[in-house]
């Protein structure tokens, strides 16, 4: 991967990650084939960083899209940066490698570029993605994240993944990993919800100080999935200040929200299955916001979280009770 050509950041293990990623999570009711079509469009448009996860249940489709784009000569495997995530039911150390191998089998790839812990909260192991008790409550477990992390390190050593990282961790959970006796590899990234209403400036500062890249999901607000968020949540892309800045640059509010992240040194994920918007999202590398624009967007922060992970409240590793 040519870092200059793909606008990449260097990770703490020496690999490069493109600053703009394509998200593959489909909303409920969207056919899985859509993920494959959209992934192919994204690669044609120029995206080289594909963000996926076991729990999205569409890795076969996404993998097929990647292989088709490699077969038709659009890209080589080494041009692509593919992320998958360890789901909460596989946190026990002996389940980690088989979980990654399962994703690789679905993808029909030899390795992924990045393997991350999806959420710091373990659930009861088994085939169910959301194991529930008789009352419909999700069954949580406590697995020491340091043990899970060690199993990720072994996946890296085995060549099944190039890099390893985390997602939805606060600074205390990151410190727990960083201070682990015998730590072999630091997390290369922490993927978290991040947008102008939740700009994560303290967590960003902390991550930068530890040479950990912050990766932003829900950078455009959210897909407003009723399973995960409250109906009356504010609509980020209708924010007047974003609209005004967008108008000034002759861009869309979404492009401004994405560009904001790129300029503050955050790797940003953009998810859309709409061809026009996929193209628009990739164009954020073509313009620049002024320092005044950046300051105005910083001023929108209200520490508002779309994804609160209510099922995990009370778990010892629940990440959102800390300020950052």
UniProtKB/TrEMBL annotation:
**Any single Pfam family the record assigns to this protein:** Aldo_ket_red
Q: What does the entry list as the binding residues for substrate?
A: 118
Return the Gene3D superfamilies for the record. NADP-dependent oxidoreductase domain
Leader peptide range in chain numbering? none
State if NADP is listed as a keyword: yes
Could you tell me which residue ranges the NADP-dependent oxidoreductase domain spans?
A: 20-301
**Oxidoreductase among keywords:** yes
Report the active site residues. 56
Which residues does the annotation list for site: Lowers pKa of active site Tyr? 85
CDD domains, A to Z: AKR_AKR1C1-35 (cd19108)
- Keyword annotations for this protein? NADP, Oxidoreductase
MF (Gene Ontology): oxidoreductase activity
| SUPFAM superfamilies linked to this entry | NAD(P)-linked oxidoreductase (SSF51430)
Q: Cite the PANTHER family for this sequence.
A: ALDO/KETO REDUCTASE (PTHR11732)
Q: Report the family membership.
A: Belongs to the aldo/keto reductase family.
Supply the name of the protein. NADP-dependent oxidoreductase domain-containing protein
Its source organism is: Myotis myotis
Q: What is the lineage of its organism?
A: Eukaryota, Metazoa, Chordata, Craniata, Vertebrata
């Amino acid at each position: 991967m040519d870092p200059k050509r793909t606008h990449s950041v260097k990770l703490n293990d020496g690999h490069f990650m493109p600053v703009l990623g394509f998200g593959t999570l489909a909303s409920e009711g969207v056919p899985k084939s859509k993920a494959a079509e959209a992934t192919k469009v994204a690669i044609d448009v120029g995206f080289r960083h594909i963000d996926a996860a076991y729990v999205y249940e569409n890795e076969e489709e996404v993998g097929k899209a990647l292989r088709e784009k490699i077969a038709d000569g659009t890209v080589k495997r080494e041009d692509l940066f593919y992320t998958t995530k360890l789901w909460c039911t596989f946190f026990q150390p002996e389940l980690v490698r088989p979980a990654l191998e399962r994703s690789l089998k679905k993808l029909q790839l030899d390795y992924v570029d990045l393997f991350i812990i999806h959420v710091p909260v373990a659930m009861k192991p088994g085939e169910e993605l959301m194991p529930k008790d008789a009352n419909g409550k999700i069954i949580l477990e406590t697995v020491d994240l340091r043990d899970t992390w060690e199993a990720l390190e072994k996946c890296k050593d085995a060549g099944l993944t190039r890099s390893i990282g985390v997602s939805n961790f606060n600074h205390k959970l990151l410190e727990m990993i960083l201070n682990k006796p015998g730590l072999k590899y630091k997390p290369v990234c922490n993927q978290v919800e991040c947008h102008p209403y939740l700009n994560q400036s303290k967590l960003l500062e902390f991550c930068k100080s530890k040479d950990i890249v912050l990766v932003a999901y829900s950078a455009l607000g959210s897909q407003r999935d009723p399973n995960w968020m409250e109906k009356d949540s504010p609509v980020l892309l209708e924010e007047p200040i974003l609209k005004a800045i967008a108008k000034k640059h002759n861009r869309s509010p979404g492009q401004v929200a994405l560009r904001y992240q790129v300029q503050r040194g955050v790797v940003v994920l953009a998810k859309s299955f709409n061809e026009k918007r996929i193209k628009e999202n990739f164009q954020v590398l073509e313009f620049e916001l002024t320092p005044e624009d950046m300051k105005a967007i910083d001023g929108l922060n209200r520490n508002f979280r779309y994804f609160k992970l209510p099922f995990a409240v009370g778990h010892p590793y629940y990440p959102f009770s800390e300020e950052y």
